[in-house]
Design a protein that fits this description.
Largest sheet of chain A: 2 strands, antiparallel
Strand content of chain A: under 5%
Number of strands of chain B: 21
Oligomer: heterodimer
Distance between the termini of chain A: 25 Å
Strand order of the largest sheet of chain A: 1-2
Structural class of chain A: mainly alpha
Order of helices and strands of chain A: HHHHHHHHHHEEEEHHHHHHHEEHHHHH
Shape of chain B: globular
Largest interface: A-B, 85 and 76 residues
Structural class of chain B: alpha/beta
Strand content of chain B: 15-25%
Helix content of chain A: 40-55%
Number of domains of chain B: 2
Largest sheet of chain B: 9 strands, mixed
Number of helices of chain A: 22
Helix content of chain B: 25-40%
C-alpha cells in the first residue's frame, strides 16, 4: 500500500455524510447475518457461531424477545472461597463455600479481605464469559458504570456482591426502584459518604452525584444549582449502614436528619420539601426522587446514556429529536421501565440503520471475551475451583490492563470511554492498549499461547475454521472469516492481502486445499496438523490485528 | 460531522470574540497573525514540561498552611488542622508553610526550585470533578465547551498538520507522553490526539501492517481511521521510546513503593535517553478527601498526608536525579488539580469540593517564591465558604507557554483563546518580569472597603497606577456576580460605590486587577 494513502486515512477530521435520519419505527428490512450479528454483538460479549445461527433462525422479533428474557439468565451461584489454604483457613467460610454471607464483623486473615474482592471480580468475569444468550450481562455492566462504585475503596466484599446483585437483578426493571435502592445501599452509603451525612455536618458527595451522574446529568438542558446540591444533601441526612443484619443493610437515624424545609430551584419547579418530624424524614427521600424522575431531563439523560452505550457515542441532533426524545417520553410514561425502552430501541429502524453498524469500538471485555468465544478457547472447568477462577482471572487482568478494570472504575463517573467528551469510545484505543491487543493477537495464535500473568490461553483455530461453509477453498475461507469476525465486507485487494497469510509463498491456492483436506482425513497426522495450524494462526492473528476487528 | 463543526465553530468563535480578560486589553488576533503563526518556523526548544495531575481535588489549605492567619485556619478546620509547630517552614517566607509530609518539596523550595501560586481557579467555577477537569484540560471558560485540550492546541501550533506526515526525520519522537495517566481531552488537537500512552516500553513489539480499505464517510469510517492513526503513529514512535529507554539511565535514588516516583523515574530515563518529547502527563489519584483525610488521633498523618508524601518524595527524587544527570535545566514540573476544597472541614474529618487552591511549579529554572497571599478566612465562616480565586489557571499555563516554551503572544492567544495575565513563575531568557518586579507592582495596588460588612452600600477605595483596571464582586461559590468597574483609569485614588442589589448574605470577595498584578479582599455582605 502507498504510505501516503495510509497517512491520509489516518486523519481524524474528514467530511462525513449526514447522520442517520431514522427513528424508532420498527425495523422491517432484511434479516441477514449483518443485522443478526449487529444485534448480538451490541447486546452480548462476543458471539459464537451458534448464537448467530440461532438469531438468524428466529428473526428479529423473536431474537429481541429472547435477548430481553432475563428469566433465562438468573444470577449464578455466588462467588466462592477459592483462596484459603489448609494452613491458613478462612474462619468464616470453608474452602469451596461462598463468603457472601460471612459476618462482616468477624476478623479474617488480613490478606483474605483482598482475596474475596479478587474472587468477586473473577467470578463476575466468569459470569460474562458464561453468559446465557441474553442482554443481562451487558446491562449489568451498563448499570455498574452508571451507578459506579470502586470495589477497592470498600473495606469488605460482601456488600459489593449484594450491590452487584441489586444492579443485575433489576437491570431491565424499574429505574425508580433501582435509584431508591442504590441511594440507601450500604455500599453506596459508604462510597459517597452518605453514612457521614448529618444535619450538623452535611456531606454533599451523594447529593451532588445523585443529580450529576445518576439522575439528571449535565446536558445542555440541565440547570440544577449548587443550592440544589446542598438541599439534596440535607434531604439525604441520617442514612446509616447497619452491619448487624446479614446481608448488611441501612437504617434511618432520625437524630442525624435535618428536619427543616428544603427548597429547590426553578429547574425543579421551585419544589419545596416541607419540614416534618425527623422520624418521618425517610419520606423526604421518596419525595425528592420523585422530583428528580419527574423532571424531563432525567429520562432524556438516561436514554442518552443507553443510546451511547448501545448505538453510538455521538448523538446527532436528528437522533436527539427522532430517538432520544420519544424514547424518553416512553420511559417516563412507562414509569421508568427499562425493558420497554431497550425493547423499542433494539427493534427500531435507527438501531439497524446502515450508519450505525460497526461504529462502536469494542470495550476490552467485548474484545477479550469475543476472542474466547470466536476461537473456542477452552477454560478450566469447575472440577478444580481455584483453576476455574484463575481461568477467569486472566481475562479480568487483561481487561484491566486495557482500561476496563471490572468493579473498579477509576472514578465515580465510571469509565472514561462512557463519559469523556469528545472522544468517548475511542479512549479504549490508545498506543498502549492497542499494543496490548496486538500482543494478544500475536500470542494467542501461537504454540506458546497467550500468557496473562502466568495464566495461559490456547486456541485451536481449526475449530472456527471447520464451522465455515467451505474452508477448503482459501478465498471462501478468508471471505467468510472476515464476514464473521468484522461483520463488514472488505475489498478484494484486502481479502487477497489477508489470504496471502494462508497461502504464504505459494503460487496458487490449491496447496491449502490439499493440506486442509489432508488434515480432515488424517486429524492425528502431526505433519498435516502443523501445516494447517501454522497457516491458520498467521491468518487469524493478522485478521484480529486490524482496525476493523476492534469495531462492533 | 457535528463534532467537527463544533470544533471549528468554537475555535473561530474564540478568535473573533472581543476578548478582554484579567485587565489586559486584548486585541483580537487577526486572521493574518493566525496565518503567520502557521507559517512561522517551529520554535526550537529542548524544554520539557511534566504535568502532575492530582486527581480528585486537592485540599490546598492543608497543603500550604497559612501561618500568618493560623488561629483562623485552626478554628475553621480544627478536626483536620495541622498543628502549627508541625508545619514545615520555608526560607524567607514566614507567612506560609507546608504540610509536614512535604519535606521533599520544602527542601526544593529552600534550594530555590519551587514556585507556589496561591488561589488558582477561574471565574464561575464548577464543582463537578468531571466538568472541572474538562475545564482545566481544555482551558475553556466555565460556560464554554471546547472539544480540544490546551496541550493539544499548543502542540498543534508547534507541529501544524499533525498527524499527517508524522513521525518524520525532524520529529521522530512522540510529541507528548501520558505515562500511567490518561486525560485524553488535554492532548486532543484539532485533528487528532497529540499524545501517546505508555504503561511500559516493553509492550511495543511488532506492529501489523494491514488492511487498508479507504474508510467510509460515516461513523464506522471515522473509527477505522482513528484506530489506524493510533496504530500508525504507535508503530513509528514505539521504537524510539524503547530506544531512548534502553539508552537512558537514572543516577538518583527513588523512594520505594511510590507509584509517582516509579513513573518520574521512567520520565527521567527517557529524557536522558534522548527522547525529544516535550510534554509528559503523570497522575496521582485519591485527593477527593470528603472524609477521613487525617487519622483519628493525629492530624499530621492519614490519607491526605500519604498522598502529599507520595508527591513530595517523588518530585524531590526526580529533581535530584535530573540534577545528577545534568538535565535539570531542561525540565519543569507543574501540579494541577480540578479544584481545591472548602475552607471549613466537615465533621467526617474531610473537606468538600471547593474553589481555589495553590499550584506548584518546580525545577531548577523557576523563580522561587510564593505568588499571591494566603486565603482570606472570614470570621463568621460557614461550610459553604470558599477560598477566593486570585489567579486564573490559564495565567499559569500562559506564563509557562511564554517563559518556558517561548510561545509568542499571538500563538498563546490562539491556544488559550484570550490574553491572560502572565506571572513570574519561570526564570527565563524569553521574558523580563521578575518576581521582585511583580511584588512591587502588586504593592502599588491598594483596595480598601468601608463599611465591611456591607448592609445596603459600601465604598471601595482603589489606589492604582495608570492602566486598564477590572473590579469584580465574587460570591461565596466563586461566581463573578458583578462587574463593579472595567476600563482605563488614571493613576491615583478612585472611589466606587457598591449597592447591595439583594445579594444573598455571605462571605464575598472583591477582585481588583490591573495588567499583571491583582488583589483580592474579603467583603462580608450582611442582612
Amino acid at each position: 500500500m502507498e504510505r501516503r494513502d495510509f497517512i491520509q486515512a489516518g486523519v481524524r477530521s474528514r467530511s462525513m455524510e449526514a447522520p442517520p435520519q431514522s427513528g424508532l419505527n420498527p425495523y422491517t428490512g432484511p434479516w441477514t447475518r449483518t443485522q443478526a450479528m449487529h444485534l448480538l454483538r451490541r447486546t452480548m460479549f462476543g458471539v459464537r457461531k451458534n448464537d448467530l445461527d440461532w438469531a438468524l433462525s428466529q428473526g428479529m422479533s423473536a431474537s429481541v424477545n429472547g435477548l430481553l428474557n432475563d428469566g433465562l439468565d438468573p444470577i449464578p451461584s455466588p462467588p466462592l472461597n477459592m483462596y484459603s489454604t489448609t494452613a491458613d483457613p478462612d474462619p468464616t467460610t470453608p474452602y469451596g463455600q461462598t463468603w457472601v454471607n460471612a459476618p462482616v464483623l468477624t476478623q479474617i486473615p488480613a490478606q483474605y479481605y483482598q482475596s474475596r474482592k479478587d474472587s468477586l471480580k473473577m467470578w463476575w468475569t466468569g459470569n460474562i464469559i458464561n453468559q446465557k444468550r441474553t442482554i443481562v450481562e451487558k446491562m449489568t455492566l451498563f448499570w455498574f458504570n452508571h451507578f459506579a462504585i470502586e470495589l477497592d475503596q470498600i473495606p469488605v466484599a460482601q456488600p459489593v456482591y449484594y450491590y452487584y446483585k441489586l444492579l443485575r437483578d433489576n437491570c431491565l426493571g424499574s429505574f425508580t426502584k433501582m435509584l431508591r435502592a442504590v441511594s440507601v445501599d450500604p455500599t453506596m452509603l459508604y462510597y459517597l459518604n452518605g453514612q457521614k451525612n448529618s444535619a450538623t455536618a452535611p456531606d454533599e458527595n451523594y447529593g451532588r452525584e445523585l443529580q450529576e451522574l445518576f439522575a439528571i446529568g449535565k446536558g445542555t438542558d440541565s440547570h440544577y444549582t449548587e443550592d440544589d446540591v446542598k438541599a439534596a444533601a440535607r434531604v439525604l441526612t441520617g442514612y446509616r449502614i447497619n452491619p448487624l443484619v446479614n446481608p448488611i443493610g441501612y437504617y434511618f437515624d432520625s437524630t442525624m436528619h435535618d428536619a427543616n424545609k428544603k427548597d429547590f430551584s426553578s429547574f425543579y419547579g421551585n419544589k419545596s420539601i416541607a419540614a416534618r418530624p425527623a422520624i418521618l424524614g425517610e419520606s423526604e427521600l421518596d419525595e425528592m426522587l420523585t422530583m428528580l424522575t419527574s423532571n424531563t431531563e432525567c429520562a432524556r439523560f438516561l436514554c442518552r446514556k443507553l443510546y451511547q452505550f448501545f448505538v453510538y457515542y455521538e448523538i446527532s441532533s436528528d437522533a436527539e429529536q427522532n430517538v432520544i426524545r420519544p424514547l424518553a417520553d416512553q420511559l417516563r410514561n412507562s414509569g421508568y421501565n427499562i425493558r420497554s425502552v431497550i425493547d423499542t430501541l433494539l427493534r427500531s429502524e435507527h438501531f439497524y440503520d446502515q450508519a450505525n453498524l460497526g461504529c462502536v469500538i469494542k470495550n476490552p471485555l467485548d474484545y477479550a471475551v469475543g476472542l474466547l468465544k470466536e476461537f473456542s478457547v477452552a477454560l478450566p472447568d469447575a472440577s478444580n475451583i481455584q483453576q476455574q477462577y484463575f481461568g477467569w482471572a486472566g481475562i479480568t487482568i487483561l481487561s484491566a490492563y486495557q482500561g476496563l478494570n471490572l468493579a473498579d472504575p477509576p472514578v465515580v463517573s465510571g469509565y472514561q470511554p462512557w463519559y469523556q467528551k469528545p472522544q468517548y469510545h475511542e479512549i479504549w484505543i490508545n498506543s498502549d492498549t492497542l499494543a496490548s491487543r496486538n500482543n494478544v493477537a500475536a500470542t494467542l495464535f501461537s504454540e506458546a499461547g497467550l500468557d496473562v500473568n502466568g495464566i495461559k490461553y490456547y486456541t485451536d483455530p481449526t475449530i472456527f475454521t471447520k464451522s465455515l461453509k467451505d474452508p477448503s477453498d482459501a478465498s471462501l475461507l478468508v471471505q467468510e472469516a472476515v464476514e464473521l469476525l468484522y461483520n463488514y465486507p472488505l475489498s478484494v485487494t484486502s481479502l487477497d492481502y489477508l489470504k496471502s497469510f494462508l497461502i504464504s509463498g505459494l503460487p496458487d491456492e490449491s496447496y491449502w486445499t490439499t493440506i486442509w483436506t489432508g488434515f480432515l482425513a488424517n486429524p492425528n497426522d502431526p505433519n498435516y496438523r502443523s501445516a494447517v495450524m501454522q497457516r491458520l494462526n498467521a491468518l487469524y492473528s493478522e485478521i484480529v490485528s486490524q482496525a476493523e476487528y476492534h469495531l462492533s | 460531522m457535528k463534532r467537527r463543526q463544533f470544533i471549528k465553530t468554537s475555535a473561530a468563535g474564540s478568535i473573533l470574540a472581543p476578548a478582554m480578560i484579567n485587565g489586559m486589553p486584548v486585541h483580537t488576533p487577526e486572521p493574518e497573525s493566525w496565518l503567520r503563526t502557521l507559517l512561522q518556523p517551529q520554535v526550537d526548544t529542548d524544554h520539557v514540561l511534566v504535568v502532575i495531575y492530582l486527581g480528585g481535588g486537592n485540599d490546598g489549605m492543608n497543603t500550604v498552611i497559612p501561618l500568618d492567619n493560623y488561629a483562623a485556619y485552626n478554628a475553621a478546620r480544627s478536626n483536620i488542622a495541622i498543628p502549627q509547630n508541625k508545619v514545615l517552614a520555608l526560607n524567607g517566607n514566614n507567612k506560609s508553610g507546608l504540610h509536614p509530609s512535604m519535606s521533599g518539596i520544602q527542601k526544593l523550595y529552600n534550594e530555590g526550585k519551587v514556585n507556589i501560586i496561591q488561589g488558582v481557579s477561574y471565574p464561575n467555577p464548577d464543582f463537578s470533578h468531571f466538568r472541572a477537569t474538562d475545564i482545566w484540560t481544555s482551558a475553556s471558560d466555565s460556560d464554554r465547551y471546547i472539544s480540544t485540550g490546551w496541550a493539544g492546541r499548543y502542540l498543534a501550533e508547534e507541529y501544524p498538520g499533525f498527524p499527517i506526515g508524522y513521525p518524520n526525520s525532524k520529529n521522530p519522537d512522540p510529541l507528548a507522553l501520558q505515562i500511567g495517566a490518561n486525560l485524553p481531552l488535554m492532548f486532543l488537537g484539532p485533528n487528532a490526539p497529540m499524545s501517546m500512552n505508555v504503561s511500559n516500553p516493553d509492550i511495543f513489539k511488532e506492529w501489523p501492517a494491514g488492511v487498508n480499505d479507504t474508510p467510509g464517510n460515516d461513523y464506522r469510517g471515522r473509527e477505522v481511521a482513528y484506530i489506524r492513526n493510533i496504530a500508525r503513529q504507535s508503530k513509528g514512535y514505539a521504537d524510539k521510546i524503547v530506544e531512548a529507554y534502553l539508552k537512558g539511565n537514572n543516577i538518583g535514588n527513588y523512594p520505594a513503593a511510590n507509584y509517582l516516583g516509579d513513573v518520574l523515574k521512567a520520565v527521567a530515563r527517557l529524557i536522558k535517553g534522548g527522547l525529544q518529547t516535550r510534554l509528559y502527563l503523570v497522575q496521582v489519584y485519591g485527593f477527593d478527601t470528603h472524609s477521613d483525610q487525617v487519622d483519628a488521633t493525629d492530624n499530621t498523618v492519614g490519607a491526605h498526608a500519604q498522598l502529599l508524601q507520595v508527591l513530595s518524595d517523588a518530585v524531590y527524587s526526580f529533581q535530584k536525579d535530573l540534577e545528577a544527570l545534568k538535565l535539570d535545566r531542561r525540565v519543569l514540573s507543574m501540579t494541577f488539580s480540578e479544584f481545591g476544597r472548602r475552607i471549613k472541614s466537615n465533621s467526617s474529618k474531610g473537606t468538600d469540593h471547593g474553589v481555589a487552591a495553590p499550584m506548584f511549579v518546580m525545577g531548577s529554572q523557576v523563580q522561587t517564591g510564593i505568588i499571591g497571599k494566603n486565603p482570606d478566612i472570614p470570621s463568621n465562616l460557614s461550610v459553604n465558604d470558599n477560598v477566593a480565586m486570585q489567579f486564573d489557571f490559564r495565567s499559569v499555563y500562559s506564563s509557562i507557554l511564554k517563559d518556558w516554551f517561548c510561545v509568542p503572544d499571538s500563538e498563546r492567544n490562539n491556544i488559550l483563546f484570550k490574553n491572560f495575565q502572565t506571572l513570574p513563575i519561570v526564570n527565563n531568557n524569553c521574558s523580563s518580569t521578575g518576581i521582585e518586579d511583580y511584588h512591587q507592582n502588586q504593592e502599588k495596588l491598594k483596595l480598601a472597603i468601608l463599611p465591611n460588612p456591607m448592609v445596603e452600600r459600601t465604598e471601595l477605595s482603589v489606589t492604582i497606577p495608570n492602566g486598564y483596571t477590572r473590579l469584580h464582586l465574587i460570591d461565596p461559590e466563586g461566581r463573578f456576580v458583578k462587574t463593579i468597574f472595567e476600563g482605563k483609569l488614571e493613576a491615583g485614588e478612585h472611589r466606587f460605590s457598591l449597592e447591595n442589589e439583594g445579594f444573598a448574605p455571605g462571605n464575598y470577595y472583591v477582585y481588583l486587577q490591573q495588567t499583571d498584578a491583582q488583589r483580592t479582599e474579603s467583603l462580608v455582605i450582611a442582612k
